[in-house]
């Protein structure tokens, strides 16, 4: 008797058309999600060497470009709950990577997130690693192909944004 947990899934070859496994490689939704997954898995391995989890490097990467965001802005931007983000910020704060700075806006107290000196150095390493991964991913393409790919992906992204969105 074979242990079913040890069996590898088999690719279905009895399907054709839209049900065919080949269809996935022609499906933009699948390709974009799969490329994103491969980027994350690859980057996870690189960042593990720096002692960072996925959620930690994800926050640091965004903070690199948007330092000084409020916790609520970061939670919205990272698609996290405010409570989950607060725990993550606390963890990075205890590691000495980031700090919360309080301020009052319109009579309301808020906290903005900033790098510490050590965090900024680590953020630079995260950014350098991300840029290297992108160069490796784009290596099979020629310059004009990279530019065209960027143009096409920006168009697809724009088509998926909610009408009137300010994310464009």
State the assembly state of the protein chains. Answer: single chain
Outline: globular
Average pLDDT confidence is: 88
* DSSP summary: helix tally: 7
Structure notes:
This protein is mainly alpha-helical. The protein is about 60% helix and about 10% strand. It has 7 helices and 2 strands; from the N terminus they run αααααββαα. A hairpin with a 2-residue loop joins β1 (about 100-105) and β2. The longest helix is centred in the C-terminal third of the chain and has 22 residues, at about 115-140. The radius of gyration is 20 Å and the shape is globular. The mean pLDDT is about 90.
Question: Secondary-structure map with pairings?
Answer:
Elements: H1 21-25, H2 28-48, H3 54-66, H4 71-78, H5 82-94, E1 98-105, E2 108-115, H6 117-138, H7 143-160
Antiparallel strand pairs: 1-2
Helix pairs in contact: 2-6, 3-6, 4-5
């Amino acid at each position: 008797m074979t242990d079913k947990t040890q069996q590898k899934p088999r690719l279905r070859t009895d399907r054709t058309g839209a049900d065919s496994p080949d269809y996935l490689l022609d499906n933009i939704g699948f390709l974009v999600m799969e490329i994103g997954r491969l980027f994350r898995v690859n980057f996870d391995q690189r960042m593990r060497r720096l002692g960072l989890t996925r959620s930690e490097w994800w926050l640091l990467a965004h903070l690199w470009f948007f330092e000084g965001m409020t916790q609520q802005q970061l939670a919205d931007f990272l698609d996290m709950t405010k409570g989950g983000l607060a725990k993550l910020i606390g963890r990075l704060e205890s590691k000495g990577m980031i700090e919360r700075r309080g301020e009052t806006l319109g009579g309301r107290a808020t906290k903005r997130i900033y790098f510490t000196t050590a965090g900024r150095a680590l953020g630079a390493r995260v950014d350098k690693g991300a840029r290297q991964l992108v160069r490796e991913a784009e290596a099979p393409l020629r310059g004009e192909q990279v530019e065209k790919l960027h143009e096409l992906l920006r168009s697809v992204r724009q088509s998926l944004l909610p009408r009137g969105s300010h994310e464009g």
